[in-house]
Structure formats: C-alpha cells, structure tokens
Write a structure and sequence with these properties.
With 256 residues, chain A is α/β, with parallel strands linked by helices. Chain A is 34% helix and 25% strand. Chain A has a domain at 3-47 and 55-84 and 148-189 and 197-224: 3-Layer(aba) Sandwich (Rossmann fold). Chain B has 273 residues and is an all-alpha fold. Classes of the chains: A alpha/beta (256), B mainly alpha (273).
C-alpha cells in the first residue's frame, strides 16, 4: 500500500499575551492509502489541531506535512466538522452541491456523481427538503455526502458524531464507516470516544498529553479474527482493545 | 348571559375538545379586534362631543369632523396628495441610500476587519449623537431643497445601520467560515454563501427600523428646510394657527408609517417562504 500522508517532526504552538503554548511536538506518523485511522488522546491535547494543520488551515511551527498522490495533481482533502453546518436557507440538494458551487465544478459529471451518492445511500428522497426537516443523523450523513461530492483523496473527520445523541451516534458512525469503506476513501478520524475509534478504525494512534506526540500505534484487527465490522461491539476482542486503550490513557493522565 | 358560540368551518371534522379549543380561540380574537375598533370609535366620538359642547377649545384641539372635512377638501384639489408624494419620495430615497451605503460599508468592514476595528469608535460616536443637531449645519452647507432633506433623512439612520449590520456579519459562526474554507472557498465566497444569507433575517429587521428612521429624518429636514411635504405642512399650519391642518398631517404621517411597516412585513414574509 502506498503512503498518502506523512507527518515528520511536526510541532505547533500558539502565542498569546501571557506566553507561548506548545500544543504538539515531534508529531510523526504516516497514513496509508485506503486505511481508516483514528486519533485518540486525552481531552484538550490538540487532536483537532492536527487536522487543521493537515488541511492547511494552520501552518506548523516546525516540521513537514507531506501529501502524496498517484497523479501529479495535488491531493484533495475533505473535512467533516463536529456540526453538520447545513445552511438552513438551502434545500438538501443545494447543500450537497455547495462545495461544487464554490469550486466552480457544476459540471454534468460532478452533478451526476452527487446524485448517485444520494441515491446509493438512500438519501435521494431528502433532496428537496430543508435541513430543519431532517434528523441529526441524516444531517450528518448529508454533510458527509457534501464532502464526498468533491472526490477527496483524504477525509478528515473532526469528532463528527459528538453532537449526536448516543443511539444516533452508533447508527450514523456505522453508516459513515460503511460509506467511507465502499467509496474506498482514506480517512483520519479524531475522537474522544474510545469505542467509536475501535469500532471504525483499522489503526488507532494514541496521543500523549499536551504537548502531544504519538505515543503508540495500535492496529485493530477484527477481520483477522473473522469478526465483521457490524458485530464488533459485541465481541470479546472489542472489550480487550477498549481496556488496553483505557489503561494507556489512564497512565498518561497519572504519569505527571 | 350566554355567549353565542362562534361558527367553525368544517366543525364536523373535529373532536369536541378540539372544537371547544378552536371556538375559544376565535372568541378571543373576536374580542380583541372589536375591542380595538370600539376604543378608536369611542375616542373619536368623545373628541367630537367635547369639541361640540365646548369642553375643549376646538380652535386648538380641532375635531374629527373638521379634520375629515379638511381632508376631503385638500384631497379633491390634489394639494394633499402632492405633499404626501413628496414626503414619501424623500423618505424612500433616504431609506434606499441608508441601506445601500450601510451594506457597502459594513461589507468592507467585515472583509477588512482591521479597517472595521479602526472606524468602529467613530461610528459609535456619530451614532450616539442626536442626529437632528446636524440638520442646521446641513442646511447651511447645502441650502434648502431635496438633497438637504434627503441627507437629513439619511443622517438619522445611517450610522446605527452600519454598526448593526457590521455586528451581524461579525456574529457569523466561525465554524461556518471554516466549512467554506475546507470546501475550498475564499473570503468573498464565504461572504456570498454564508455571511450575507445568514444575516438576512437580521438585515430585514434592521431595514424595518430604518424605514421609520428615514421618515423621522425627512420630517426634521422638512421642518427646517422644506417648501413642500408633510413636515412643511405641520410647520406652516402651526405658524398660521391652522391646527386642523397640523393634526391632519400628523394623522397622515401615522398612516404612512403603518403603511411602510406593513410593506416591510410583506417583504419579510416573502423572503421567508
């Protein structure tokens, strides 16, 4: 498998009147094409900052972030935020094509692709509805489709389910995982929910406390043990992974 | 006394409880509407009787019948329509200019935040000034005529309008701006796709306030520099002790204010659909 993203000794700090705060230091990791990686760490350790750095919303104070692509075009990044931010004055269809509109890509090919995505994931009937008429879970799936219409090479998911209630979160995270896998996308998920990370990811990057760096990389191998993704939450292995990560996070909190 | 139950359309489709609820609601509405009409009517009646019985001096306080008679006279020789037209035209232009200038300025301030930050205290200063104090100065600079009156109209609302609009633009959820950035949009697109459409409800209510302020400004302008218009009629009427004319003009102003507010409400409803 080829590497799509590489972080090399990345550091980031922000400055205020009272002084410098180092958010991350010596951040090193690579993401392989087609993989689903989750980043888990103590709260407030700067998990979301990593995504902002990769997306280019912030620039690192040191180190390199490299994105690789198969052709010569710059790899495209899709970003999914905590809230769906569907614009309430646009109907669902026009929310979905917002990205195309912004990038002047309202070509028949892209529009057909957007329609296909909606059809494929049973959301076509919502096209003419307003966001306020949809449930939270539906809205978050629409937000994912909005990102996917731009055919991103790498998807960044910034706690995309944290605004949903528990039950919806389980359902939507399953759906989103399914959509991402069947579209063959590479994804990087930031979450504070350990079980969500285990249920969705192929690899989990465990971060240290702030200034953070990757403490451990835990491969999640349900497939090896013949457990399918929609049943993982019931398995013994799931509990084992959970305990392992929980322990590591506890250690991290008590170390200093 | 038994209150008769109001008829409800399609009563047979509702349950008894629902029908009861609808009837009570209709009765309440009925009471409010007729209460208002009754109040207005008895006020006019009392005024008329007081004038007839000389409880009040009709020379100073006029009477509904005198005012109506004057209204019909003035309406027939088109003089009144001319003055109403002038005032409406001046307030309309003032309003449109307030909105246009505020939109341009507030957008620039949002686009260049440091410019906005720099000018904000000056705007706050101008906004807290009693704007009618500017009118004499404007007259000296620009003489009497439409431009002066329109400028008076603008000066009352403009600074507050810019400030309100700028603050509304600034209150856009930063996460939404982030969304546009992550979708590959620039700042201009952030404005057209998110900031302005998101501010539309506030923009409408700001407009509603400013159409009233434009009217206030225009009347001040006409008081001081007008040769026609309702403001001029009020001043003229008071100087020649034609108080019928003054009260009539004030009543027409009331009607205009209500009319303009109503138009804005209709526009608001249209935009919501």
């Amino acid at each position: 498998m080829s590497v799509i993203l590489k972080l090399d000794q990345v550091a980031y700090s922000y400055y205020s009147d009272t002084g410098e705060v180092s958010v991350m230091d010596n951040m090193d990791f690579t993401i392989e094409k087609g993989s689903f990686t989750a980043i888990v760490g103590p709260s407030g350790c700067g998990k979301s900052t990593i995504l902002s750095l990769i997306a280019g919303l912030l620039s690192p104070t040191a180190g390199f972030i490299t994105l690789y692509s198969d052709d010569f075009a710059a790899p495209k990044i899709g970003y999914m935020l905590q809230h769906d931010h569907l614009l309430e004055w646009r109907d669902i269809y026009h929310n979905v094509i917002l990205g195309l509109e912004i990038q002047h890509k309202l070509t028949p090919q892209y529009l057909t692709f957007a329609n296909e995505l909606l059809e494929k994931y049973n959301l076509a009937h919502t096209k003419n509805l307003l966001p306020s008429e949809l449930s939270g879970g539906m809205r978050q799936r629409i937000a994912l489709i909005r990102t996917l219409t731009l055919k991103p090479d790498l998807l960044l998911l910034d706690e995309p389910f944290s605004a949903l209630d528990y039950q919806t979160r389980l359902l939507v995270s399953k759906d989103v995982h399914h959509i991402i896998k069947s579209e063959n996308k590479t994804a990087l998920l930031v979450t504070h929910d350990i079980s969500e990370a285990i249920a969705m990811a192929d690899n989990i990057l465990l971060l240290s406390k702030s200034p953070c760096h990757v403490k451990q990389c835990i491969p999640i191998e349900f497939e090896k043990h013949g457990i399918t993704r929609d049943k993982v939450r019931d398995s013994k292995l799931f509990q084992d992974y959970f305990d392992l990560i929980w322990r590591e996070l506890q250690n991290e909190n008590t170390e200093t | 006394m038994k209150i008769p139950k109001p008829k409800i359309k399609g009563a047979e489709h509702y349950s008894e409880g629902q029908l009861n609820y609808l009837q009570r609601k209709k009765l309440y509405q009925f009471g409010i509407t007729w209460g208002r009409i009754l109040f207005l009517f008895s006020f006019l009646l009392l005024w008329q009787i007081a004038a007839d019985k000389e409880w009040i001096d009709a020379f100073f306080f006029s009477s509904p019948i005198d005012i109506t008679r004057l209204f019909v006279d003035k309406l027939l020789n088109l003089e009144l329509l001319h003055h109403i037209g002038i005032t409406l035209m001046e307030s309309g232009i003032s309003f449109l200019l307030i909105i246009l200038l505020s939109l341009i300025t507030a957008s620039c301030f949002w686009y260049f935040p440091s410019v906005g930050k720099m000018f904000e205290p000056f705007l706050i200063l101008l906004n807290s000034l009693p704007k009618s104090a500017l009118a004499p100065l404007i007259i000296v600079w620009m003489g009497t005529g439409y431009p002066t009156i329109i400028l008076c109209g603008i000066s009352v609302g403009l600074f507050g309008c810019i400030l309100n609009l700028y603050q509304t633009f600034q209150q856009t959820d930063p996460e939404r701006l982030k969304l546009i950035t992550t979708l590959g949009g620039n700042k201009f697109q952030a404005f057209t796709k998110v900031v302005f459409p998101g501010s539309l409800p506030a923009f409408i209510s700001i407009s509603k306030v400013n159409i009233g302020l434009a009217l206030v400004g225009v009347i001040i302008g006409e008081f001081l520099a007008g040769k026609q218009g309702l403001g001029y009629l009020i001043i003229y009427g008071s100087q020649v002790y034609q108080l019928n004319l003054v009260i009539l003009s004030i009543l027409i102003l009331c009607a205009i204010a209500v009319l303009l507010y109503g138009i804005m409400n209709i526009i608001e409803k249209r935009l919501k659909c």
